[in-house]
Automatic annotation (TrEMBL), chain A:
<dbReference type="GO" id="GO:0016887">
    <property type="term" value="F:ATP hydrolysis activity"/>
</dbReference>
<keyword id="KW-0813">Transport</keyword>
<comment type="similarity">
    <text>Belongs to the ABC transporter superfamily.</text>
</comment>
<keyword id="KW-0547">Nucleotide-binding</keyword>
<dbReference type="InterPro" id="IPR027417">
    <property type="entry name" value="P-loop_NTPase"/>
</dbReference>
<feature type="domain" description="ABC transporter">
    <location>
        <begin position="17"/>
        <end position="253"/>
    </location>
</feature>
<protein>
    <submittedName>
        <fullName>Peptide/nickel transport system ATP-binding protein</fullName>
    </submittedName>
</protein>
<dbReference type="GO" id="GO:0005524">
    <property type="term" value="F:ATP binding"/>
</dbReference>
<dbReference type="GO" id="GO:0055085">
    <property type="term" value="P:transmembrane transport"/>
</dbReference>
UniProtKB/TrEMBL annotation, chain B:
<keyword id="KW-1003">Cell membrane</keyword>
<comment type="similarity">
    <text>Belongs to the ABC transporter superfamily.</text>
</comment>
<dbReference type="Pfam" id="PF00528">
    <property type="entry name" value="BPD_transp_1"/>
</dbReference>
<dbReference type="InterPro" id="IPR000515">
    <property type="entry name" value="MetI-like"/>
</dbReference>
<feature type="transmembrane region" description="Helical">
    <location>
        <begin position="185"/>
        <end position="207"/>
    </location>
</feature>
<feature type="transmembrane region" description="Helical">
    <location>
        <begin position="106"/>
        <end position="131"/>
    </location>
</feature>
<comment type="similarity">
    <text>Belongs to the binding-protein-dependent transport system permease family.</text>
</comment>
<dbReference type="Pfam" id="PF00005">
    <property type="entry name" value="ABC_tran"/>
</dbReference>
<dbReference type="InterPro" id="IPR013563">
    <property type="entry name" value="Oligopep_ABC_C"/>
</dbReference>
Amino acid sequence: MAGSGSAHLREPDRVALRVQDLVVEFRGGVQAVSGVSFDVARGETLGIVGESGCGKSSTARALVQLPPPRSGSVRLDGVELTGLKGEALRRTRRRLQMIFQDPISSLNPRRRVRDIVAEGPRLWGADDSEVDEILEAVGLDPATAATRRAHEFSGGQCQRISIARALVLRPEVVICDEPVSALDVSVQAQILALLEELKERYRLTLVFIAHDLAVVKNVSDRILVMYLGKTCELAPGAELIDRPAHPYTRALLAAVPGGNRTSETLISGEPPSPVSPPSGCRFRTRCPLATERCAAEEPVMRQVGEGHFAACHYPLL
Amino acid sequence: MRRHHTRRQFTTVLAVSWIVLVILAAITADLLPLPAYDETLTGPASEGPTLAHPLGTDALGRDVASRVAYGARVSLLVGIGAVLLGLAIGAPLGILAGYRRKLTDAVIMAVNDIALAFPALVFALAVVAFAGASLRNVLIVLGVLGVPAWTRLIRGTTMAFSRREFVLAARLLGARDRRILVREILPNVAVPAASYAFIGMAVVIVAEGSLAFLGLSVQAPTPTWGGLINEGRPMLDTAPHITLAPSVVMFLTVLSFNLVGDRLRARTDVRQSGLEPVRQAPPAAAPSVHVVRQDTLLQVEEMRTHFETERGLVRAVDGVSFTLERGKTLAIVGESGSGKSMLIRSILGLLPGSGVIRSGSVYLDGENLTSYTPQEMRQVLGPRMGTVFQDPMTALNPVRTIGAQVTEPLRVHLGLDRKQARAEAIRLLAQVGLPDPVRALKRYPHELSGGMRQRVTIAMALSCDPDVLFADEPTTALDVTIQDQVLRLIHRLRQERHLAVVLVSHDLAVVRQWADEVIVMYAGKVVERGATAEIFSRTRMPYTEALLQAVPKLGDPPHHRLRVITGRPPDLAALPPGCAFQPRCPYAQERCALEAPPLEEDCACWYPLNVRESHGR
């Protein structure tokens, strides 16, 4: 699972975002992301799942170069972002926008909601005629937004504001980092439905990061599973859930309440520390199928089915 | 809360008025019908307050009121000037350090720390002694002395806000540093800075007073408050008003600045909880019409918990009853604000001491716990009722070892000696699946992962062999594989120890798998309850149905349209008329908005779904 490799990447011309061998390092040399590759086709939603510490949020930040990755390539419509500096980066980066987990921390408490959403157009000298349209599209009343500040809104409404802010510049790719994990079930459904609706309406390309497999499956066309800074498996949503090829994916599915729990599928223990990751496959310390080869040799992503890739020496398919 | 609130507002208004009054007096001292501050023999010397001299006269027959008013000029000028000077130097340094971080921060903060290590007042004394005691020098010295504190404060606030996601979002939109600082960070730093400025002014006024008292501030004949106090000192026996007048004025001014600063700081917290307790209300005597069942382990009758808040009465828990037997798991589900956690806290008696109105009864093996004193309750919590909460860090003391914390209840409640308690702790930790329990005893909570910490709190909850385990969202903060491990652990322990478990959760999938019975709560009330399988397969309450359909399921095809419940949970202080769910309910009819449906046959709905023919109402 400690998968590297790029066999799963597609032809560059259909692809809006292409990430190759991404490495993110924290101070002190600890790697949060160790050689991750994936791509997202135009109009597609790529879901990224994994448990805490798998590097999914670090990947999201590295995509927008905040902070830039240690190494690797991030191409947006063929333009390499990692080398860009200053003004050029500022211009290109605005085509990538993000939605965050914490609805409160995502919005400046001292600004009025309409100003928050209008910030993008103002920065680029555009008139803010589109702001009201976007506010209505996300289900907010522009008149209320003009006078109120974010703390007067509920968590779900704050996420709507964040979505409006992200969409107002008409970005090519929107990265959603756990956008519904802080919300109640009923509000979560509202936001997921809204994202689907806006995706149609504005022809968005989405990277949807979450820890909840069912949520990710609901919105994604393809799903990428990460573990301890590496990619494990990539497949179309239904395929991944129905026919997992990687033992870790299978374990994740088994752990979901109501999952197929047998001594073979369930895993015990906790992810090892990223400070000293295991040799070879990073999942081997918890993997029921691990052999000596898994410690010696790192598996790379290889095809196991139609559009289905896994980084495992002993895939289940 | 209302009364408390208005009292606080009143004192703030008083404080602001006093500050305005003192400032006005200082500005218009020349225009006021007062003798000049240095005009001697305006009346008899050292005379107490009279009509002509409301604050009396001093030893030279000068008018004290006039001298205090003129003295305010020095105090305020130094107070306000020094703070502005400190802010002018400290704020840019702090913002630079907090925003740039890394090397810039390291250098600025290293210099700052050295500056802070200087004995401030000694430095002030030395400089004034050398450079001369003039208004300008005093102001500059006190201003510069404030710089390190300003730098530190502004840096901390800047850092906290520049880590917020809205700053990241602004950068993604293409905002440059300057705009981010001006638009996103400065407005947020301004409020705590203003609050600190008022407190800083109070500090400087006192410092200037001290310098003046020592004769190291502005020299005579210009009056200063500290100087006036010093002058009056020899005559304290015969003419106390000469000292008292400036002292009282200075005291009130310093107090007012502090009060305003404090009030501003309280405002920094934009999101104030609506659940602030107000006053103690005597527990309403519950009419015990219910039958106390001796054979039932846990019986909760008509539990009500209301809070008096600024916005009105919040009915957090509004008449909840249930029973629970040994060896069963009861799940309480609901969204935030449904009252599920408050219900648990009410049962355990863990509510804030004031402003809460709690009624209803809790029987454990037939004993009425609600009649227990806090001391008696302490003998129940732990030995008979164990608790596990969402965040294990709130249950664990960060500065004590796991060993100390796990052995404590064993020694207090079970009276084990040190050695026995240690052995028992090791056994408990092993039982909850902590690897290497012997070593774990010596570790601190922060050295363990979230899942391991939760295992420790479970071990602590079970240490005194309770009858009921209350688990409030025990796995919400955990990853899915760890969640599964922890829930399996709770289930296993339930079997082994024949426990009853009350599981509070918002996660319906968790509930479906682990609970025997389910209570669905909405707006503080039970809206449906029953055996788990029944609730999930034959849902009757529209809210339960909506909740079930709103959850994404693994079996659904991708892009499956989820059921969207419009609107959001109601404001508990302003509930809609009739059924609380009616404004969001697709099946609602006229009657629903008029009358609240009672909980009948385990469902509170006028038009329940899936009702068997024989049950037809």
